[in-house]
């Protein structure tokens, strides 16, 4: 297996494999490629424990590191998943939140391992990139949302 030149390393307390397998069931172009075991004892585990997991999330190469409780996830890092419609938005958001995750604002949510996700419809991404009044209107309605409602964003774009 060839290691990618640039890989996102995500620190988990102890559940890197469970997280990677969950992501692989939720997002297309995602898979677990390798599970690597600790060759000796280390500060947060024993020889033979899962140490790292190589996986992809929506085509992005990642390594999950079971590093223990020294560091916690926060919103400074997130995956942004662009969606094409409300059904896709609902599918990803609900998969994360309904699996002991946590809903947040403006399309953000956290999975049960603390990793942040932005489930963002392309209509919102495009509206914000358009600048001017369409961007302002889309932004104002987005700021009132948890999960993004595509119809409300589209309505805001057309109402002047």
Helix vs. strand class: alpha/beta
Radius of gyration: 18 Å
Q: Give the percentage of residues in beta strands.
A: 25-35%
Globular, elongated, flat, extended or rod-shaped: what is the shape?
elongated
Tally of separate helices: 5
Query: What's the pLDDT, averaged over the residues?
Result: 95
- Strand neighbour order, sheet with most strands: 1-4-3-2
Distance between the termini: 54 Å
Biggest β-sheet description:
4 strands, mixed
Helix content: 25-40%
Query: How are helices and strands ordered from N to C?
Result: EHEEEEHEEEHHH
Stretches where pLDDT falls below 50 for ≥5 residues? none
How many runs of DSSP E, i.e. beta strands? 8
Can you tell me about this structure?
- The protein has 160 residues and is an alpha/beta fold.
- Helices cover 32% and strands 28% of the residues.
- The protein is built from 5 helices and 8 strands.
- The strands form 2 sheets. It has a 4-stranded mixed β-sheet, covered by helices on one side. It has a 4-stranded mixed β-sheet with strand order 5-8-7-6.
- Helix 3 (122-130) packs across helix 4 and helix 4 runs antiparallel to helix 5.
- The longest helix is centred in the middle third of the chain and has 12 residues, at 86-97.
- The radius of gyration is 18 Å and the shape is elongated.
- The termini are far apart.
- 31% of the residues are buried.
- The mean pLDDT is 95.
